[in-house]
Amino acid sequence: MSYKLQSFDGINEPSSLATSQDGLYSASSSRKSGCYVSAKTGFILTFLAMATAAMVGVIVTFAVPKTNDASDCNCGATQAPVVGGQDCTTQGTPSTQAPPVATTCPACPECTTPLMTTHGMTASTSASSEVTSSSPMEMTPSYRLPTSLLPVHYTVILRPDLYSKVAADFSTPGYVKISINCTEETNNITLHINKITYDNSTIKVFHADGNPVNINMVTENKQLQFLIVDVTPNLMAGNMYTFEMNFTAELVDDLAGLYYSTFDRNGTTMYLAVTQFQATDARKSFPCFDEPAFKAKFNITLERRNNTPDFEDYITLSNMPLDHSYIAEDGFIADVFQETVVMPTYLLAFAVCDFKYLSSVTQNWTMNTYASKEEYNKTAFALEVGVDILRGFENYFEIPFVLPKLDQIAIPDFGAGAMENWGLITYRTQYMLYDPNVTTAGTHRFVAVIVAHELAHMWFGNLISPQWWDDLWLNEGFASFFEYIGVDFTRPEWNIHDAFAIENMHPAFGVDSYPTSRPIFATNVNSPNDIDRLFDTITYQKGASVIRMMWNFLGPETLRRGLSKYIKRKEYGNVRHQELWAALSEQAKEEGKHINVQEIMDTWILQQNYPVVMVTFDSTHIRTMQTRYVLGNTSEGTDSEFDFKWSIPLTFTSSQNRTYENNDIHWMYRNQTEATFEWPNTINNANDDWVLANVQQFGYYRVNYEESNWKALIKQLTTNYTLIHPSNRAQIITDLMALVSLDSVNISLALTSLDYLNQETEFVPWYAALNEIGYIRNMLLTKAIFGKFETYMQSKLEIIYGKIGFYGAQDESMNNRLLRSYIVGGACYYHIKNCTDQAVLLFDRWMENETNLIPPDVKSRVMCTGIRESRSDTWDKLFNRMASQTPSDQTIILSALGCSREHWVLERYMTYAFDDTKIRRQDARSAILAVVYNPLGRDIAWNYLQRNWNHITTVYGMSAGNINRILRGLASRLTTQFQRDELARLRDTLGSDSDYIPFFDNALQDVDLNVAYVTKHYTELETWLGASS
User: Fold this and answer.
1) How confident is the model at residue 777 (pLDDT cuts 50, 70, 90)?
2) What's the pLDDT score for residue 888?
3) 50 phi and psi, to 5 degrees?
4) DSSP assignment of 457-510, as one string?
5) pLDDT tens, 665-674?
6) By C-alpha distance, which of 927, 903, 905 is closest to 916?
7) Distance CA 318, CA 387 (A)
8) Which residues contact 1029 (CB under 8 A, 6 or more apart)?
9) What does the pLDDT look like over 399-424, one tens digit per residue?
10) 409, 415, 418, 420: CA torsion to nearest 10
11) Which residues pair with 263 in a beta bridge?
12) CA-CA distances (angstroms) from residue 160 to 269, 303, 345, 669, 872?
């Protein structure tokens, strides 16, 4: 999707200073994936259901007159029981029939118009339905469309009407015509629709020769978001038909479908209309077959006005270049775009705005970067790296970018980070603009990363798409991996690969440590809510991590050639992960590598959690043993067909033969708990020799050793840390801290891995260390020993702060810029006097005169420290100034405003967060978490959320994803049983079917572990801090 925003990207304050859980995930189903009933039982249940439905159909046919008047009730229908389920390995065939319409309209029960009609039954069944254990009639309704009709071509005409400048009057009148191929006889057309009004009289169906098809009834199932058009006679397999209708879609500021966005231009509110269709919101703009497998070609026409001064410069954009324009009625200009390639609905994109652009023309395509007239020159960096990266991917995959143009546009209001719409990529404004005078190192780097992510989607997701959303990782996991490949094409000096593990694997470990985590390949994905929950850390970061592991054990060139083969075979089509495994295995075999990719990778994508590998050795052999890394009550999770064993590619290096590139792969397979390997070097811990496993942390697993080897590794860090790769220095720290939570190592041993940090000058190990230290800080924030902890942190940071300083040099390396932002952040947070004094001085000068620029890389901490050390009048001044700042600086200020030490100011900020006139809806979560992460604000935020829960979730309508992020952020700060009980009480006030229950359960797991951690380790931490001081 949309690039998933993380809390570790360095754009806001360092994550070590605002530690939160990264991403969202839902509790997995209690079922295993695959078939749920025997063939015999399934046959009997299927026969009974079909017979029942047939009898109902006979009764209804003779009892209820089929009058077109019945179609005037455009309210819901309910899904009848459908027997069947997924194939054990691939998605089943969806039902070819629409769900029957209920006698009582569930969406508007006051509707008295008869709704019953006859729907013929066929042998095919729903792809996502399942049989429950209680009764064959208690079925989960299937949200999947029938497959008896396949769209081939759409003509869509839309008129986003925002020209009154009165938001309540905005709407989008439209027209759609769909050419449909009938693959199986059916008596209805069922397609998606949501929040659209229409007149039934405009709905028409035609034969290929233009003769009309009789429409019996039109009904709408609001729960399933289906529009059901019953016809007579049946539509016949092998024939083409045309469906058309007029409608009016809403045009509101909800960041979904076709919506409006605003920005300020010299005191005037400017409006634009833009889209976000992934995953299930194309249906909110026009009726369509809104699933990824229903690909078609599209002819798009967008109508606009330019006959008034306020709108004279307005243009429209879509996926393809403009073909021609003509004058439509009512003073509108109709912009007709070239026909698209075959594509799914979720990749369509539209924009109506007065933006300007920069352009780069190559031999085969043109890239344009759009933004407001005030900001478009700041898209030059995104354009530069975009051209480099797109060319790089063309060469890498040996497959050209297939469209004639690629636009990228910066949107003021945008819910995600970016969206890979084919030919028109949309971004949140601050993630596309770069100004060397004001942009932080983190944002500078992030612009390149997010552009690379979206451009990787041109192959993964666009040229090939998953058959269904359960394989979403084939889009997002690959884009999250290839963003690093892409950035390396254009900025190799950044050494971005070194940061992969800390930005992807470590966050994935954090959420994948619970029994209620889920496999990468998701099961029971049915409703829009099910789909939305898949855009999480498991799909993105864990998906990317196992792909990187595969890149290492197959070899980079083998993976490249295999992926090229996989894409070429399925271009413009849909894929399942089994087809990926087959292509990669075939490529490996051609190169003489006998690797069964499916046998290996199924253990990584079909079960949750990950292994911890215990490594021991003697003078001639290395021995390994794998166990499951999981925290909490394992009975709460699902079982695994692999019994939580993995096929693990092991790599080793040692003090006697330090190699960190092209290390041999040693396999421990899923049928092995233990494995032994010959090792040519004699290793003796008594001589401070060491073995290190998981070189560069390519493998998605943690490592444990005997204490003597840990001590040898830690001594090496202390004596000469440069002899261990930066990624493995980070790994040593994070593995030890994770093993403490598993009670596999003593916390005092883990803490000694931090001793060498006084010498460390690389960003990657410091990032990892500060995140781990951040967890300890969160556990101690309200404890009596926090003062000693603060003193310890001052001692850790003073030396590196003295080396790197508050101010950077011209043309400094990206490593040093990122490192400074984190070290200065820590130094000021822990009240190192020089840092606080410098920050307050810079802040005060800037508040007096904005021409006194703050160095970009320390701006986040300067703003926070300035607010922390000031009073409410300064807070008000900064809040009022925020709207006039650059988008990236607005993000920094949003976080800084949460740093106040005045309780009433923080309480007021919470109210602002839910006021659209104060804070953009897309930024509400950031404001709330800024208060949560303030030690003085945690309880203020929590109490506010409890008091206003119904308003936040129903009236304000905050998204489930943002609710989850806030709950996890809050949970990361809760450390007592009392706090845990309060959280549980709020959960218990919700209905058992609430969409928020899994999020509360995840948060409660976090708090349970926090409580256990403090209970077990408080005394040890107190002793350690006493010794350290």
Assistant:
1) very high
2) 86
3) -65, -40
4) TTTBTTTEEESSGGGTHHHHHHHHHHHHHHHHHH-GGG-GGGGHIIIIIHHHHH
5) 999 999 999 9
6) 927
7) 20
8) 788, 791, 792
9) 999 999 999 999 999 988 899 999 99
10) -90
11) 270
12) 17, 7, 18, 57, 42
Name the DSSP class of 952.
I
Give the pLDDT confidence of 910-935 residue by residue, as tens digits.
999 999 899 988 899 999 999 999 99
Measured distance CA(866)–CA(493) in Å, rounded: 34
Q: How far apart are CA 205 and CA 621, in angstroms?
A: 74
Cβ-contact 527, 222 below 8 angstroms: no
**Residue, of 825 and 684, whose pLDDT is higher:** 825
Peptide bond into 279 cis (omega under 30): yes
495: left (phi over 0), alpha (psi -120 to 50) or beta: left
354/309 Cα distance (integer angstroms): 12
Output the furthest CA–CA distance in the chain (Å, rounded): 92
- Is the predicted pLDDT of residue 6 greater than 80, yes or no? no
Residue 324 counted as an annotated binding residue = no
| Residue range 571-589: mean pLDDT, rounded | 97
- Residue pair 261/240 in contact by the 8 Å Cβ criterion: no
Cα separations in angstroms, 664 against 207, 627, 659: 63, 22, 10
Determine the residue type at 924. Answer: A
Q: Which residues contact residue 726 at a Cβ distance below 8 angstroms, ignoring those fewer than 6 apart?
A: 498, 762, 764, 765
d(CA 94, CA 526): 11
Strands 356-361 and 322-327, by their bridges, are: unpaired
Selected catalytic residue, list 13, 454, 579, 760: 454
Angle at 181 between CA 178 and CA 185, to 5 degrees: 120
For residue 453, say whether it is annotated as part of any ligand binding site. Answer: yes
> How far is the C-alpha of 189 from the C-alpha of 226, rounded, in Å?
10
DSSP letter at 900 equals -
454 is catalytic: yes
Reported confidence tier of residue 310, pLDDT bands at 50, 70, 90 = confident
315 touches 309 (CB < 8 A): no
**C-beta neighbour count of 686 within 10 angstroms:** 7
**Residue 457 is labelled as binding a ligand:** yes
Q: Please give the mean pLDDT across all residues of the chain.
A: 86
pLDDT-derived band at 185, boundaries 50, 70, 90: very high
Q: Give dist(CA 811, CA 805) in Å, integer.
A: 15
